[in-house]
Prior knowledge:
- About 30% of the residues lie in helices and about 15% in strands.
- The protein is α/β, with parallel strands linked by helices.
- The relative contact order is 0.21.
Amino acid sequence: MARHVQITADDALLDNAAKTLATNIQFASVDNPIRSVEVTSSAPNEGKSSLAVLLAKAMAQGGQRVVLVECDMRRRSLGGILGVHGRSGVYSVLAGAVKASEAVLTTPISGVYLLDCEPYIPNPVDILSSQRFINLIEDLKKDYGYVVVDTPPLSTFVDAAVVSGAVDGTLLVVRQNFVRRDELKNAYDQLKKANANVIGAVMTFCEADKSEQYYSSYYREDGTKVKSPKSKGKRGGKAEPAPTGAHYSRYDR
C-alpha cells in the first residue's frame, strides 16, 4: 500500500525558496555557468547540509541530474538526511579502489544522487587539496548537470577554503541571530584569501509571514520605500523562509 506524505505549507515555502536559489545560481554567470557549488558556513549548526539537499532537490526538479558530494569528512550529514550510505565513498574513489560510477548512490529524491564519504578519514585537507579531487569534480560535471559539495564550517577547519578551489562557486550559509559578525567576516575573508568565487550568502532559520508572500517591504518606481501591511501575528520557535527565497532550513546542521 502506498504511503501518503502530507505536504505542509512550510514545506511548500521551503521548496519555493530552494527553487529561487537554484534559479539564481543558474543565472549567476552566463559566460561561465556555475555547475559545481560548494555549501559551507562559518560555524556549526547553521543548516548548511539541509540547504545542500534542498538545493539539489530543486535543481533536479528543474530537469537536471544532480550529485551531492559529502566532503565533511569529520561529521558527515548528507547520508543521514537522505537515509542512504554506501560502502565506498570519496576516499575510495580518489584512492582508485572503485570508480565514481560504482560509488555514487541513488537517493529517495528523483534525480538526486549521493557520493558519500567513509567515516574517520585521515588528513582530509591533504585529500581535498589533491589534483585527484579536482579531477573528480570535473569528471562528475561531465555526468551530472550539477555537483553540490557539502563541507565543514570554516571556523573549525580549513577544508571549505581548500575545496573552493575545485568548484565553480561557493555559497556561505548564515543562520539568523546565531553566528557572530566577526565569525562571519573571518569566514568570508578566509574564502577570499583562497580565491574562492563566493556567489552569495544564504540566510537560514528565518521567520516570514506567508500572507505577505515573502516580502517585508515594497518600493515605488522612484525607489522610495513603502511600508508593508502589518503582520497579523508572529510565530515563535519555528524556522520558516524569509524574503528573497534563499532563506531557509529545516534541519539543524
